[in-house]
Amino acid sequence: MSYGSGPNPYPAGQAHYGAPQQFGAPALSPDIAPLPGAGFGEAVKRFFQRYAQFRGYASRSEYWWPWLLNTIISFVLSLFTVIPMLTAMTAAIEAAQNGEPPIEPAYSTGVLMMSGVSSLYSLAILLPSLSVLVRRLHDTGKPGVWFFIVFVPIVGPIWLLVLLASESRPDLYRPEWS
């Protein structure tokens, strides 16, 4: 028996003396790895490309840029729905105050269409929003079920907001999230 040909004296999985060691976070494939410092366009693109991918990780920018875009779009769609509704309600209230017989507010078909478009948009972004939220929680070292913390009154939404805004924790990544 010559030198080095005997049984391996090191426990399973342990590298021998002088072999390169892996330190830090495990190497992740590009389809599940977070993209720290993603710009607006890249973050929105990844949001829609990974619309139903609940495994993997999402950086803060990957979460907050699409959140901002969706908030702006939802606000604009709401304006196109609420302003005509308020106008119709104001006309009905003024008619009642002037002693005229009560009338029901006449909502135009445009209001109903915009309400439908707003609802469809909200449904369309529901799954991608949940998946990026779960991936963001994974990036902070928490499992996706931590989303349900939002249902704890008062402190739950605040706690979730703090988690979503916190730093990435690659040292807490788990293989089952990949």
Write the layout of secondary structure elements.
Blueprint (H helix, E strand, L loop, with lengths): L39 H10 L10 H38 L11 H31 L15 H11 L13
Helix pairs in contact: 1-2, 2-3
Describe this structure in words.
This protein has helices at 40-49, 60-97, 109-139, 155-165. The protein is elongated, with a radius of gyration of 26 Å. Helix 1 crosses helix 2 and helix 2 (60-97) packs antiparallel against helix 3. The model has no long low-confidence stretch (mean pLDDT 86). Helices cover 51% and strands 0% of the residues. The protein is mainly alpha-helical. The chain is built from 4 helices and no strands. Pfam families: DUF805. The chain crosses the membrane at residues 63-86, 106-133, 145-165. Keywords: Membrane, Transmembrane, Transmembrane helix. It comes from Actinomyces johnsonii.
